[in-house]
Structure formats: C-alpha cells, structure tokens
C-alpha cells in the first residue's frame, strides 16, 4: 500500500501544543511514520508546509511544499495524486475536505487524520481493539492476562463513573474530535511563523 500524508493536517489533528515548536512536531510525526512504515512494510510519503529543514528518514520520503503560502502542501498532494499512474492504490491522509475532494476526483483513496493517527498507535489500542488497514476497529482476542487487565480497567472506570454521578458532575468525557479536525489541521495558528 502507498500512503501520501498531509503532514501538517495530521500533526494538527491533536492539540498537543505542536505550534510552539513546528520542527519538533514534524520530527515527531516523521518518527511515528517511520515506525508505521517498518511495521506495515508500506511506502509512505509525507509533505509538510513551511520552510524546509534537515529532516531525513530512511523509511519515509519526506518532502516540503514546493512553494510557500496557503494550501501549498495541499496543491502538491493533489498534483501528485493526479499524476499518479495508479491512483487507486494511493491513500491520501488528510481531514481537509477540499483536498479530499480533489484527490478522490483523481481516483485516490482517502483516510482522515484521526483514523490514521489510530493506525500510527499500532495494531492494538489500549482498549484491545485491532485497527484494520481502513481504520476500522475490530475486536481482538488478546491474552487472558490482557483480558483480565481490561476487565479490571472497565470495573475501575465503572466505579469512577458512579462516583462522578454521585457528585453531580462528570468531567470524565473522553470523546475525541480527531475526525472533525479543522481545515488545514490547525496549521493556520502557526502560519505567521513561516
């Protein structure tokens, strides 16, 4: 499988403070992509917005947008998808609706940044679900030790939930907004730093 990753969109899909040190965030994503490439055997290319700097990888092709400014990496990604000889075998990773529209029109497949982030975390999440190559979760058998630990985690979270209900407030909502990340993955916050 071949992947073309909108680097800043995936980076910006989680509010980790990445905008305070964009190069460090780019290095961190590249390291995650390297681990994924080694684990999966898939070919990955990541394209970042911003000023190019030394960011080498032996497992991932790292590129910077060919120009500066708004949608620079998006334009390069859309062009690469349109020029690809087998776009149906290419999966573009982005939650940017306009970029998704453009690459799907060229014949490429797409996967949102949040779903891809879950794949980067590995085939097993902390909840014992395997993630398919399409970002879908599947129940995992796991070892009996893992299952016992998961059952204990569920019991503990159940008692915490009861305590929270008794207290009248619930601050334990762990809902995620991975799939609804902002257009450009929040990269506009650091746009002036380019």
Summing up helix and strand content along with how strands pair, one would put the structural category as: alpha/beta
Query: What is the quaternary state of this protein?
Result: single chain
User: Could you state the order of secondary-structure elements as H and E?
Assistant: EHHEEHEHEHEEH
The outline comes out as globular
Strand order of the largest sheet: 3-2-1-4-5
Low-pLDDT stretches: 124-194
Percent of residues in beta strands: 5-15%
Could you explain the architecture of this structure?
- It is a single chain.
- The protein has 194 residues and is α/β, with parallel strands linked by helices.
- The protein is built from six helices and seven strands, in the order βααββαβαβαββα.
- The chain has helices at residues 7-11, 22-40, 72-83, 97-105, 113-120, 144-167, and strands spanning 2-6, 43-48, 60-64, 90-93, 109-111, 129-131, 137-139.
- Strands 3-2-1-4-5 form a five-stranded parallel sheet, sandwiched between helices. The protein has a two-stranded antiparallel sheet with strand order 6-7.
- The two termini are 32 Å apart.
- The model is unreliable at 124-194 (pLDDT under 50).
């Amino acid at each position: 499988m071949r992947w073309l990753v909108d680097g800043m969109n995936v980076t910006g899909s989680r509010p980790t403070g990445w905008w305070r040190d964009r190069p460090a965030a780019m290095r961190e994503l590249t390291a995650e992509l390297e681990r994924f490439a080694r684990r999966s055997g898939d070919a990955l290319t990541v394209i970042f917005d911003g000023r190019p700097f030394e960011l080498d990888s032996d497992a991932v092709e790292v590129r910077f947008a060919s120009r500066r400014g708004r949608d620079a990496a998006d334009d390069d990604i859309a062009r690469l998808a349109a020029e690809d000889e087998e776009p149906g075998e290419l999966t573009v990773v982005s939650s940017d609706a306009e970029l998704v529209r453009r690459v799907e029109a060229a014949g490429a497949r797409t996967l949102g940044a949040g779903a891809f982030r879950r794949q980067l975390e590995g085939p097993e999440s902390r909840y014992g679900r395997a993630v398919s190559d399409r970002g879908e979760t599947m129940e995992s058998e796991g070892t009996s030790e893992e299952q016992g630990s998961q059952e204990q985690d569920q019991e503990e979270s159940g008692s915490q939930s009861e305590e929270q209900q008794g207290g009248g407030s619930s601050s334990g909502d762990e809902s995620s907004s991975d799939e609804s990340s902002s257009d450009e993955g929040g990269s506009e916050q650091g746009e002036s730093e380019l």
